[in-house]
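Budget justification note: compute hours in this period were largely spent on complex prediction jobs such as the one shown. Inputs:
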Amino acid sequence: MAELSVSYDNRIVKNFAVATMLWGIVGMLVGVVIAFQLVEPSLNLGNPYTTYGRIRPLHTNAVIFAFVGNAIFMGIYYSLQRLCKTRMFSDLLSNIHFWGWQLIIVAAALTLPLGITTSKEYAELEWPIDIAITLIWVVFGINMIGTILKRNEKHMYVAIWFYIATLVTVAVLHIVNSFEIPVNLFKSYSMYAGVQDALVQWWYGHNAVAFFLTTPYLGLMYYFLPKLADRPVYSYRLSIIHFWSLIFLYIWAGPHHLLYSALPDWAQSLGVVFSIMLIAPSWGGMINGLLTLRGVWDKVREDSRLKFLVVAITSYGMATFEGPMHSLKNVNALSHFTDWIPAHVHVGTLGWNGFLTFAMLYYLIPKLFNTKLYSEKLANFHFWIGTIGIVFWVMAMYWAGVTQGLMWKQFTPDGYLMYPNFLDTVTQIIPMYIIRGIGGVLYLVGALVMVYNLIMTMAGKKLVANENVIVQVAEKHEENPKVGYGHRVLERKPVLFTVLTTVAILIGGAVEFFPAFLVKSNIPTISSVKPYSPLELTGRDVYIKEGCNSCHSQLVRPFRSETERYGEYSKAGEFVYDHPFLWGSKRTGPDLHRVGSKYPSGSGRAWHYKHMVDPRSMSPGSLMPPYPWLVESDAKWSVTPNKIRVMRNLGVPYPENYEHQALADMKVQADGIVADLALSGIKAKPESEMVALIAYLQRLGTDIQTKKETAQR
Amino acid sequence: MEIIAFLMGVSLLVAGFFLYAFIKSVKSGQYEDDYTPSVRMLFEDQAEETNP
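Corresponding output:
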């Protein structure tokens, strides 16, 4: 053995830690605001920039990519250096990574309230930011792989495998899901349409959960839990099996977000089967974590950080049991589109990600400043108020979700819907929304207490920017190349290892895409389905800009309770020109796929107009925010010809040179709507966003003949 | 679109090989040392100041 002097970079860890705290508070605060907006619509503040549809994506992006993202980097930059017994590959790359990521977050915080969005959940950021994310991710990748390559420790500890899987898979997911054609700097259309777009999006969406919220955190668990408990992980063998089986299975599970949708049945079933199988590796990881504490449970009593970890790992176990259950078609029939899903998600995010992050912060900040935590009491307080906050949050939403799901499906003995007015099922659960908001406030208060505690810990102390240590390194002649083969050899070869990991995660994606893209019969075309008119297309972009899909689905499932309420169920062929698809994932308001035939084409326009300006004038008690600015705001017709051109490049059959005709056609259609509105005494501007949006809404779902009597309900 | 099909076909072949290699390595008992890595990570590095 030889001794080697190594200097660990602690400054970068501290930077990411501070960013984690800052963005965590911002993201949670926005979360609390939108929670109460669903109780009291006036909290939308009457302007576009703070309206639910626009800031709900701000909340999700802030907590996922800013709070959890920075926490991942904080944990990786700390543990990777120590596991590899070397400094990060390049300080310059570390700094580019840090500042680049913060700039991306700022760009997101500016563009999302401005309504610049792709509408694809957790991938809302527009194409220039997508490119920036890719570049910064590559910087992170080079820095990480470079560090692994120059490591002074032969063996790659299990945590590193999880980091590698995260690096590789997030890159693949992000790139594949972000294929889009720009219209201008702030607008693009997804290259995929309808069902294919939905499949790619949820392959991405589910694996964002898997490889951004799960695998990096499992790696961090495998580092920080043994460190804090001062016990080796319960079973190293189990961790190996856990890793491989988890990355193999996760990538296939995406279609469980699309059960009973227009996605081909075989793809849905595939998603279900793999989701069920996921219980095994997920619980393998949870058990491995909890059993690591065997014999040292007394420490959990003393150490608030271990308390956080125990709740985090337990939450992980609950969420990963619940996920497969939701993937069963019969459970999903009830739970999908309800508040049950946010409840499930928040067990994972508040419990697993949040609490594990808090444990890391309480561990790292004192270590980086070579001091003790300012107040153990406050940390304990944080633990308890946070835990109570989670319980309030998720119990209320479980209750709300099941209640609303059952109400949607309830029939009278005579065979009519018991609650034909959707609003009745909303007002019923408002008390639950209030309790959820209170839970969020408690959780936020806990986080604020933590920030205070950690600031006081840092105050007046000096950061150990470079931690100089002596590490033991095996000398060349001590190596015996014949010792270890198979996996042990793999563990010493990070490049090969990375390639093989990529291959492993590509299998799942490939098998699902391959047939869906190639087998035409999967997506039957319907001859009566035609491209949107230029005005409708413009209105569709208003719908996207305002984030209507945050609360409204456009997918009627083939249940009697849904065809009675909304009309004919949705067919795959109806979405072939939808770049991007707008199926949504949550029905805070009713489904809109058949709304086009719900109100008559003439007088119905006035209904839409009045409803948009003041929803409560048409639906008393509605939770929808008012959109009065649509009356005045300009729909930017000048961009539409370019949109037509881009759509044609994507395969939408607009005739050659139609973009020159587009503006004239828009004028005719808009004038018709303005004339109809005038009959109801409303003076509307033809170029306003309102008129375009009405055109789109009245087109929705009308291409195929639907049974009038059900659609009218 | 054909290029995607091609790439995916190749991915599947390589992936199949990988699965084979992985199962084979498991069956031939690769993990004889499935304990010490978990203990070694617990050791804190020696601070330079205390050991000049």
